[in-house]
């Protein structure tokens, strides 16, 4: 595992037909300098992992349960994701925090479960527009970091994704100064608690081929968590190339 990571979050998009996008992406990046991750819906994880076998593309889930097994209809355990070929799992995405009322404590419990199954947790944090307008961004980010990361997080088992909620799916991107401020803050906060661990810090929210290079030039940005632009091989490929060149 390197430090630079281009991660795609397909969210609730993708069926068998979209495996061809992954095959095209694999062909375009036989030996990337960065790590590449695609997190498809759970229904595609196993087949996508088979498609990506032996390639530079790694696969991940979009959520897991905090428990290892049991009576939790509709949920998926971390070990099941690993069994389906996943190396990573996205946890605490703002859409899950909103749609499923996930709390920082629940995200921390899921992160522990992911680590227990040998998965790398991609833990998401980010402020809403109202929180930013109120001047609370760094306080919100700090609290989410403290609450969502359990003891035992290392650079090898945890990636942090900063995704301002107002930038997700909107085409609105923070200024480079705003990204710098938050990523520097996250780096310092992590150094305080997890000394000596050089975590990968991803930016997410409307990353596209035409803005990726300037975002990747920001200090303490080690890659991206990409939604919409990860669905098409051509778009995601351009973002991967920008990270390779950064
Ligand atoms: P978009 O790239 O579509 O804005 O989504 C970002 C995101 O939420 C990735 O997890």
Secondary structure elements and their pairing?
Blueprint (H helix, E strand, L loop, with lengths): L4 E5 L9 H10 L6 E5 L2 H11 L4 E5 L16 H6 L4 E4 L2 H6 L4 H13 L3 E6 L3 H5 L3 H12 L9 E5 L13 H18 L6 E5 L7 H5 L6 E4 L6 H13 L1
Parallel strand pairs: 1-2, 1-8, 2-3, 3-4, 4-5, 5-6, 6-7, 7-8
Helix pairs in contact: 1-2, 1-10, 5-7, 7-8
Bound molecules: 1,3-dihydroxyacetonephosphate (13P).
| CATH superfamily descriptor | Aldolase class I
**CATH architecture classification name:** Alpha-Beta Barrel
Return residue spans where pLDDT drops below 50 for at least 5 consecutive residues: none
Which small-molecule ligands are present, each listed once? 1,3-dihydroxyacetonephosphate
Q: Order of helices and strands, N to C? A: EHEHEHEHHEHHEHEHEH
**Spatial order of the strands forming the largest sheet:** 1-2-3-4-5-6-7-8
CATH class annotation = Alpha Beta
Strand content: 15-25%
Name the structural class: alpha/beta
User: How many beta-strand runs?
Assistant: 8
Helix segment tally: 10
Rounded to the nearest angstrom, the radius of gyration is 17 Å
Short description:
The protein is α/β, with parallel strands linked by helices and 246 residues long. It is 40% helix and 16% strand. Helix 1 packs parallel to helix 2 (42-52) and helix 7 runs parallel beside helix 8 (176-193).
Task: Provide a descriptive summary of the structure in words.
- The protein has 246 residues and is an alpha/beta fold.
- It has a single domain, classed as TIM Barrel.
- 40% of the residues lie in helices and 16% in strands.
- The protein contains 10 helices and 8 strands.
- The protein has helices at 19-28, 42-52, 78-83, 94-99, 104-116, 129-133, 137-148, 176-193, 212-216, 233-245, and strands at 5-9, 35-39, 57-61, 88-91, 120-125, 158-162, 200-204, 223-226.
- It has an 8-stranded parallel barrel, surrounded by 6 helices.
- β1 (5-9), α1 and β2 form a beta-alpha-beta unit.
- α1 runs parallel beside α2, α1 (19-28) packs parallel to α10 (233-245) and α5 (104-116) crosses α7.
- The longest helix has 18 residues, at 176-193.
- The chain is globular, with a radius of gyration of 17 Å.
- The two termini are 17 Å apart.
- The model has no long low-confidence stretch (mean pLDDT 97).
- The protein binds 1,3-dihydroxyacetonephosphate.
């Amino acid at each position: 595992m390197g430090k630079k990571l281009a991660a795609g979050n397909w969210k609730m998009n993708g069926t068998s037909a979209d495996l061809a996008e992954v095959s095209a992406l694999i062909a375009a990046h036989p030996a990337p300098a960065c790590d590449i991750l695609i997190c498809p819906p759970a229904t595609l994880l196993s087949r996508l992992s088979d498609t990506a076998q032996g390639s530079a593309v790694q696969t991940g889930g979009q959520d897991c349960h905090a428990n290892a097994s049991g009576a939790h209809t509709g949920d998926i355990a971390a070990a099941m994701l690993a069994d389906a070929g996943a190396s990573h799992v996205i946890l605490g995405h703002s859409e899950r925090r909103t749609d499923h009322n996930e709390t920082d404590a629940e995200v921390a419990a899921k992160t522990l479960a992911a680590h227990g199954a040998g998965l790398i947790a991609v833990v998401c944090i980010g402020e809403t527009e109202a929180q930013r307008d109120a001047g609370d961004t760094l306080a919100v980010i700090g609290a989410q970091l403290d609450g969502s990361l359990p003891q035992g997080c290392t650079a090898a088992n945890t990636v942090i994704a900063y995704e301002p909620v107002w930038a997700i799916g909107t085409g609105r991107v923070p200024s480079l100064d705003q990204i710098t401020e938050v990523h520097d803050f996250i780096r310092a906060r992590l150094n305080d608690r997890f000394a000596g661990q050089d975590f990968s810090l991803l930016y997410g929210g409307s990353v596209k081929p035409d803005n990726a290079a300037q975002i990747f030039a920001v200090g303490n940005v080690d890659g991206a968590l990409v939604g919409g632009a990860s669905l098409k091989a051509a778009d995601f490929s351009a973002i991967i190339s920008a990270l390779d060149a950064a």
